[in-house]
Design a protein that fits this description.
Blueprint (H helix, E strand, L loop, with lengths): L2 H19 L3 H19 L4 E2 L5 E3 L3 E7 L2 E6 L6 E7 L2 E5 L9 E9 L2 E5 L4 E10 L2 E4 L9 E10 L2 E5 L1
Parallel strand pairs: 1-3, 2-4, 3-5, 4-6, 5-7, 6-8, 7-11, 8-12, 9-11, 10-12
Length: about 170
């Protein structure tokens, strides 16, 4: 099950519980967020918590959780494999336009909750978008390439936020 589907499903379930038991949805979401944050601290962090700005990186796999901060980066990887980004109450500008890859396809998993993500991909990439915007926008503005080299599979969700991919 994808992370985006899990988050959307949990929010829908919480809305149903809220209606059924007349509970405060804000209290439930805040409580779950604090519990999630505590679990992340106790179990260690798979991705990196980001407070970085305008960096240049050479990572082949980009995994970030951007929480109440901004993350701007340009990747210069020579064998890029995938990106997994979660933006909560933050903003991110990720430039992949100079990356190279040996893979025939690349996965880009993006979740924006009360946040914004703008991602630039190389002009030779064909972008296949499978995302949903819930009171937000999930847009693919990448122009189809003249000569397709790599297929980028963009998946995710934008809830009260936005995900935009361009080339």
């Amino acid at each position: 099950m994808s992370q985006a589907r899990l988050i959307v499903g949990l929010i829908i379930i919480l809305l149903g519980v809220n209606i059924l038991f007349d509970l405060s949805l804000v209290k439930i979401l805040f409580s779950l967020f604090v519990i999630w944050l505590g679990v992340r601290v106790l179990t260690g962090n798979q991705g990196k918590w980001s407070v970085e700005t305008k960096t240049r990186m050479h990572e082949d796999v980009l995994k970030r959780v951007i929480l109440f901060s901004k993350f701007d980066t340009r990747l210069l990887s020579q064998d890029f494999k995938k990106a997994e980004l979660v933006i909560i109450f933050g903003a991110s500008d990720v430039d992949l336009s100079e990356v190279k890859t040996k893979q025939p396809s690349v996965d880009l998993d993006c979740v924006a909750i009360f946040g914004a993500l703008k991602m630039r991909v190389p002009k030779s990439w064909s972008v296949k978008s499978d995302g949903v915007g819930m009171i937000g926008a999930f847009t693919n503005q990448a122009k189809p390439p003249v000569k397709k080299a790599v297929e980028a599979n963009l998946k995710g969700v934008a809830i009260f936020g936005g995900v935009n991919i361009v080339n």
